[in-house]
Amino acid sequence: MSPHDRSDPSAAPARHTSTAELDAALDAAVAAFAALSSLGRSGRARLLRAVSTALEADRDDLVTTCEQETGLPTSRLQQELSRARFQFEHFADVLDDGAYLEATVDHRGDSPAGPRPDLRRMLLPLGPVGVFGASNFPFAFSVAGGDTASALAAGCPVVAKVHEAHPLTSASSFRAIRRAAESIGVDTGILSLVHGQQAGTELVRHPAVRAVGFTGSLPVGRLLADVAAARPDPIPFYGELGALNVVAVCPAAARARGVDIARGLAGSFTLGVGQYCTKPGLVLIPAGPDGRALRKALITAVGEVPSGVMLSERIAGAYATRSTALAGHAGVTVLAGHSDRRPVDAGGRHGAPVLLEVDPDQLTGDLLEECFGPILLVATYTDVDQLRSIVSRTGPALTGTIHADGTDSEVSRIVLDILVGRVGRIVWNAFPTGLAVAWATHHGGPYPASTSVLHTSVGATAIRRWLRPVCFQDVPADLLPDELRDEPVDHSLARRVDGTLRVTS
Q1: Nearest to 160 by CA among 141, 176, 179
Q2: DSSP one-letter string for 234-266
Q3: CATH class of the domain at 23-241+452-467
Q4: What is the residue extent of each domain of the chain?
Q5: What is the tally of helices (H) and strands (E) in the chain?
Q6: InterPro entries, alphabetically (predicted)?
């Protein structure tokens, strides 16, 4: 099918998937599971690289469709589509490497605990999974996003719930991926789309679904997590939900480069009209002239940022309501933003940046909750004890940021020790918006940042969510997966054999 062909029924924005259609999608996924698993690592790597090629071939159509549908700027969408492509290529590299399987062999023998049978263990795919698209990333966290890439890499067919903010973009991404599968002879049942809230809930409940990946709001994510847990057979629900990300500026850093920090911070919390889950929501600055200079520079920088088009009227309206409520709190002063404390036209889609100053003693309750949009709270600490107290009050989050120079080591160590127990990624002398797709990346954190503190939705180890360990005891060699045989076909695979980590040769 041509990437420009709009006749596919999955392209209809107002569609709502029926129960029968959902069952058919899951039947197709179940049927495709064995074929996807049997491709092996090399076959699935070829599939992922074919998907990357197909996305590139459809780049103009994908970006044009998404720009018209979401209002996001072309430059942003071009970059995000490149990121989506790279995620498929990255997981192809993960498959080539193979270490993610945790292949382990313990040969038969004696041990201090007595005779040991032949034991061989590795990670195997769970089965069909559900993936929910995110409103704010129509490529990188949606149908052509990291959850889909990592699940297909693991060997799990995907049924993707389309986000209502970009159904046409989702359909175009779907067609590109399906075309890639067809081009190398892979069962197209590896990917299906469903539409509508009811279908999304039924997807989580469906007995054929073995896990779910979700990126979105806390209320919806928690609701679906509870649905997953309430099933007769509970399944993992990997929700990346977001939270208030704190930035701590230590005294020496404020003195040495306060103006630069202020400018960078203004750019970070207003990036994408504040609609990134990694957006900084609270900055802590030191009292005294250095802190005041940083604060002044931040006010100036925020005042220079124009309003922007938000993802939907609903999101813009929620931002208007929430930011106005925060501005009206006791102990809160508006430093930059509309003087009437109505920073957004609630009937439209524009959101203007707002900078609020909060009395540290009043920093409790909903002031410590995420507000989706371009808003930042500023609190001033007088000494290290007050800084420790404020940081300790902030809840779990995806990120925690520290700006520190050499003489800040004592203060920064205190903040670091607190954040290590509360966030999934610690950022040093930079800003949390911007997330690399890499082997060491972790994007998650304790609830409510995510529903599973053990896992990430970005980076190589995101594949771990879609796998389960299986141990083979005394199983004949010819029935074992290749990765567990004494003479595997892939001699470059890292394995732990009889307790020693090594590469077979």
Answers
A1: 141
A2: ---EEEE----EEEEE-HHHHHHHHHHHHHHHH
A3: alpha beta
A4: 23-241+452-467, 245-428
A5: 13, 21
A6: Ald_DH/histidinol_DH, Ald_DH_C, Ald_DH_N, Aldehyde_DH_dom, Aldehyde_DH_Superfamily, ALDH_KGSADH
Listed in sequence order, the residues at least 6 apart from 78 whose beta carbon sits closer than 8 Å to its beta carbon are 59, 63
Lookup: tokens for 386: 């007050």
pLDDT of residue 119: 98
Cβ count near 207 (within 10 Å): 10
| Same fold: 23-241+452-467 with 245-428 | no
- The DSSP-derived string for 312-338 is -HHHHHHHHHHHHHHHTSTTEEEEES-
Place of tokens 């889909």: 148
Q: What is the 3-state secondary structure (H, E, C) of 19-74?
A: HHHHHHHHHHHHHHHHHHHHCHHHHHHHHHHHHHHHHHHCHHHHHHHHHHHHCCCH
Predicted TM-score (pTM) of this structure? 0.93
Cα of 97 vs its chain's centroid, Å: 23
- Report, as ranges of residue numbers, the positions in the chain whose pLDDT lies below 50: 1-12, 339-347
Specify the amino acid at residue 270.
Answer: T
For domain 245-428, is the CATH number 1.10.10.10?
no
pLDDT score at 504: 58
SS (H, E, C) 336-399: ECCCCCCCECCCCCEECCEEEEECHHHCCHHHHCCCCCCEEEEEEECCHHHHHHHHHHCCCEEE
Cβ pair 68, 13 in contact under 8 A: no
Cβ atoms 294, 258 nearer than 8 A: yes
CA distances from residue 352 to 38, 98, 283, 298, 340 in whole angstroms, order as listed: 52, 47, 19, 15, 12
Write down the pLDDT at residue 338. 55
Instruction: Give the active site residues.
Output: 240, 277
For 404-466, strand residue ranges (E) read 423-428
